[in-house]
Specification:
It is an enzyme of class 1 (oxidoreductase). The chain has helices spanning 31-34, 41-48, 54-65, 72-76, 102-105, 123-136, 159-168, 201-211, 284-298, 309-330, 373-385, 409-418, 427-431, 449-462, 541-555, 562-568, 571-574, and strands spanning 84-88, 106-114, 120-122, 142-143, 149-154, 181-186, 224-229, 243-250, 254-261, 273-279, 351-354, 360-364, 390-393, 399-404, 432-434, 474-477, 491-499, 505-513, 529-537. It is of the alpha+beta class.
Length: 575
């Protein structure tokens, strides 16, 4: 679990400036400053054998000899480079998460993350993922908020066949986890939206083709998250990625990208910053490579909890970062560029929308990303029956189905409703996401998926016939690490054990209010506020959300958003 320090309730909008280097008495582990001698156990195992090298051992040794044969350093380190984490052993309560060693928490089964760059899938690929889930993962499947699909209950003996099936349809798990360039987020409507400025697919494909699996970039200080969009809704949560490219129209150079660097959440949230440059589409991959190399060479490696790129950006600032990028890594200056205009529309793409070719795409939501292998294979059949072979995952745990003729839209929507995928969901269902939680995650303290699904069902009953007073996001996380982006939600819930009225320790959540990323309702991203002592029990989420949303409906000024109200409201109104 990360040991980064918590941010204060009154943190500035862009997040804490950490100043990791100021006054440091020890080397920070920056390769270009301090040399490459490993300064902790993680850096040591990466130097001894790169994470990419473990696949050969998985296929030739561990898959044949079983879980007990796995070298502990491979198991707890290098396996991640191929999308594999040991999952939590059933029956261990959240109170023991921080007291047990990893080997005491883990089961002999794995979570497997299937990497889906840009969220782009065919029905053939979806069917393969679904069948792998059925055959090897007890039917489990979750859509993540990074456009991937995660499976559980995977045994190491199954991995050679799983890789064979995935790679036969152009999918894989290479660098889906680990200290590497993770999946590249892309607009779910790339290439098909009527109003996109540019299709980022060629840039995503060039980055992944050139750099994913490259040993020169497979030992970074920590994870490196990327995002690219050409859509005016700014639909790839660019402010919380290590690097992001957002389409802009330059008055002289035309359509290209605005470059953002240094965003990330976890327990020290920090929003990314603009470098003030315009990046031509044919330079995106080179600029991405330059920023990734800066992270590799100058990132802080001594302490794992200070190793994300946001800490380097916090110390350098955007001006120095741009100077180093241009002079040391690119060899040329980037043109100055304009900031993106205010986002338009909702970036989750739920509902029915016309494509540029006259057909339609349909965005649908399961409840908190929970699907199943059976549902995925059935979905592939349904999409094909309605004349399409393409779909997309989204950074909001949703699915977007492409290329539907107008006369097939309503029949498809009706069929999708039958399998729990709604194109016209309630506002609470649409706005709720949840991380994996204690069901499978070794870091979690509380349950998330089942808790969130129960809360959504309860709230839909309470608001039957009226719905929430306005669109509202509810993000539920099982620990402080913010995989579900709690600091950028209208209502963000951070899992912890709380004390109930009878003095018992029970699963619950600390509440963050009024966070959000850039949208049509919000010009700039900002972090949520906390109210001292405000905690909610796991079985009290629906009560709290109903209470605070009705208070907001009564108190709001005109068309004031929930986030605006939450930041100005007195604390008593938020309790």
């Amino acid at each position: 679990m990360s040991s980064e320090q918590s941010t204060s309730a009154n943190a500035p909008a862009r997040g804490a400036r950490t100043r990791a280097a100021r006054g440091a008495s020890k080397p920070l582990g920056q390769w270009k400053v301090d040399g490459t001698e490993p300064l902790n156990a993680n850096e040591q195992f990466k130097k001894e054998s790169g994470g990419l090298e473990v696949r050969e051992r998985i296929e030739n040794i561990y898959a044949k000899e079983g879980f007990a044969s796995i070298d502990p350093t491979d198991l707890h380190g290098r396996f991640r480079w191929w999308g594999l984490y040991t999952q939590r052993k059933p029956g261990i309560d959240g109170g023991r998460t921080a007291t047990l060693e990893p080997h005491e928490l883990e089961d002999e089964f794995f979570m497997l993350r299937v990497r889906i760059d840009g969220g782009q899938l065919t029905t053939e690929q979806l069917r393969v993922i679904g069948q792998i889930s059925v055959d090897f993962g007890r039917g489990t499947a979750d859509l993540t908020d990074r456009q991937n699909i995660q499976l559980h209950w995977i045994e190491v003996e199954s991995m050679p066949e799983i890789w064979r099936r995935l790679e036969s349809v152009g999918l894989g798990t290479t660098e889906a986890c680990g200290d590497v360039p993770r999946v590249v987020l892309g607009s779910p409507v790339a290439g098909i939206s009527e109003d996109e400025l540019i299709d980022p697919t060629p840039q995503i494909e060039e980055i992944t083709r050139r750099f994913i699996g490259d040993p020169e970039l497979a030992n970074l200080p920590r994870k490196f998250k990327s995002a690219i969009t050409g859509h005016p809704s700014q639909d790839i949560v660019h402010e919380i990625n290590d690097i992001a490219f957002v389409a802009v129209n330059h008055p002289e150079h035309g359509v290209g990208y605005d470059l953002w660097v240094g965003g990330a959440l976890s327990t020290v949230p920090r929003l990314g910053e603009r470098l003030g440059t315009w990046v031509a589409p044919d330079k995106v991959a080179d600029v991405w490579h330059g920023v990734c190399q800066i992270f590799r060479d100058y990132g802080y490696r001594r302490l794992r909890n200070k190793a994300r790129l946001k800490f380097l950006m916090g110390d350098w600032g955007p001006e120095k970062f741009r100077q180093v990028l241009e002079t040391e890594y690119l060899g040329y200056a980037l043109p100055d560029g304009p900031a993106p205009v205010r986002a338009t529309g909702r970036g989750d793409h739920v509902g029915v929308h016309r494509q540029k070719d006259g057909r339609f795409y349909i965005g649908v939501t399961p409840v908190v990303g929970r699907v199943s292998g059976e549902r995925l294979t059935e979905l592939a059949e349904i999409i094909e029956e309605h004349g399409s072979t393409r779909l997309r995952t989204t950074p909001h745990q949703k699915l977007v189905i492409l290329d539907i003729e107008e006369d097939r839209v309503e029949p498809l929507i009706a069929r999708l409703d039958e399998i729990g995928l709604s194109a016209r969901p309630s506002l609470i269902r649409r706005g709720t996401i949840a991380c994996t939680g204690i069901e499978f995650c070794k870091l979690a303290i509380v349950d998330t998926k089942d808790t969130a699904m129960a809360a959504v069902a309860d709230l839909e009953k309470r608001f039957a016939g009226e719905d929430l007073p306005a669109p509202m996001s509810l993000h539920i996380n099982g620990c402080p690490n913010s995989c579900a982006r709690i600091q950028t939600a209208d209502i963000g819930l951070k899992g912890q054990l709380i004390t109930d009225d009878d003095g018992n320790k029970v699963p619950g959540f600390q509440v963050h209010l009024g966070g959000g990323l850039a949208s049509s309702d919000r010009e700039e991203a900002g972090l949520g506020r906390t109210v001292r002592g405000l905690k909610v029990s796991a079985d009290g989420i629906a009560d709290y959300v109903e209470r605070v949303s009705r208070r907001y409906a009564d108190d709001r000024d005109g068309d004031e958003t929930f986030a605006q109200w939450a930041h100005r409201a007195e604390e008593e109104a938020l309790i």
